[in-house]
Amino acid sequence: MLGxxxxxxxxxxxxxxxxxxxxxxxxxxxxxxxxxxxxASEENPFLHISVQDNGPGISEADIxxxxx
Length: 68
Known about the structure:
- This protein is α+β, with helices and mostly antiparallel strands and 68 residues long.
- It contains two helices and two strands, in the order αββα.
- The protein has helices at 5-22, 60-66; strands at residues 30-37, 46-53.
- The chain is extended, with a radius of gyration of 15 Å.
């Protein structure tokens, strides 16, 4: 696979750092998942990385601002 390992590391560290800040200290949960996705019509696979936590999340109004 080809990619910018430094950039992936930076983004993943930022996501994990934010997750650690906002999950409940007594029962926090953070999941990191990496999946290799190979579309049937393409030869080049994709690496899908996700970070999930049980923190309070972001309000709908703030989400709209993030992705403008």
